[in-house]
Structures are given as structure tokens and as C-alpha cells.
């Protein structure tokens, strides 16, 4: 297992991925399947092999996450969202509250690692309007260091490219995070082991952006 190793190229022969090249120049061979799930990095790796009709409408964001204290010891037992506000609230193990939900900073080549005051103000306004007790919290920190890919319809993309039959990719997670992780892990494992795409993943195919389709 490698961690912190940047993949820069997919090597392929006869419509099969055969290896991946690392930034160091080292080539790692691909066994039966190649699985790409590294969010923003996926599309850059796929672009050289995607056919014109496979280009997908995806944007990037740098979502801003805020961390505040919980002086009244309130409990948030679930990941909370809101139908009309850009809000996602959850409680991490030490009791700290994490607030996010869609307010983001610009994604520049240099990166914006400290967030922006306007995103902080908008995010806190939505959070306090929904959970008034947060108004008594103290601000701890803001984190805008993670680049997120988002699909135009807000639904993740999980598919296989036409040119690489042994490759499965998933990206454009669109901020859904751990709320969908267990389900996707189950179905992706089934796909990898059986070689057949589970029907539950059909709706996530990138082919949905190009009119009516059958992913089977």
C-alpha cells in the first residue's frame, strides 16, 4: 500500500489499464481492475482516454468548514442538513461542532487555505438560524483546504470509461461525504469482485448527461 504517492498517468493497452505512473516516474502495475476514487484527481487522469461524448459537466469548489465550541453540551447525533439553507452540521468526537454546507472560497492556483470572511458570515448565519444555541459558541478555526468536485446535477458520478474496460471511477462527490460512503463502498466492492455493475449504481452513470441511456 502506498500513501501520499501522486499518480500522473494511466498506462493502457488494448482497452485495458495496465499500470499507473507516479510523479516520481515509478510505474505500478494494475492487476485485474483499476479503481479511481480520488475526487478532483480523477478527471485529470481520465481526460486522455475519455471520448468526446463522455466529457462530464463538473466544477470544482473549495468548501469552507468552520469549527465552533459547544459550551452548552448540546448533542447532534446525526449529520444535519437543511432543505433551503446551505448548511451541514455535525458533532466530532470531542464535542466540537463542524459547520459547512456549500459556502466556499475561490479555487485559485495558489490555494486559499484560510477561508473568507464573507463565507464565514453566510455560514454562521445559516447555522444560527437553524440551531440558535450555536450563537453562544466560540469560533475555533476555519478550514478551506480540501478541493471538492461537484456535478451539475448534484449527484456523484460512478462509471467505467469506454476505452478502459477494467477501470472503475467515482468522483464529483458534491459534498455528500460520509453520508453516502457506506453504501458506495458496499456496491463498489460488489462490482470489483463480481465484475458486474450493481443495478443500484446505474443512476450514477456519467451517461445520464447525454440524453436517454442504458448503462447495462
Descriptive terms for the model:
27% strand; five-stranded antiparallel sheet; 216 residues; elongated; 2 domains; alpha+beta; single chain; 3 helices
Beta-strand residue fraction: 25-35%
Strand order of the largest sheet: 7-8-9-6-11
Rg computed from alpha carbons, rounded to a whole number of angstroms: 20 Å
- The class by helix and strand makeup works out as alpha+beta
Distance between the termini: 32 Å
Bulk shape: elongated
Count of helices? 3
Low-pLDDT windows of residues: none
Averaging pLDDT over every residue, what do you get? 89
| Number of separate domains | 2
Largest β-sheet summary: 5 strands, antiparallel
Element-level helix/strand string = EEEEHEEEEEEHEEEEH
Query: What proportion of the residues is helical, as a percent range?
Result: 10-25%
- Based on DSSP secondary structure assignment, what is the total number of beta strands? 14
Report what the structure shows.
The chain has 216 residues and is an alpha+beta fold. The chain has two domains: 32-53 and 152-209, no CATH class; 60-149. The protein has three helices and 14 strands. The chain has a five-stranded antiparallel sheet, with helices on one face. A hairpin with a 5-residue loop joins strand 8 (88-91) and strand 9 (97-100). The chain is elongated, with a radius of gyration of 20 Å. The chain starts with 6 loop residues before the first strand and ends in a 22-residue tail after the last helix. The model has no long low-confidence stretch (mean pLDDT 89).
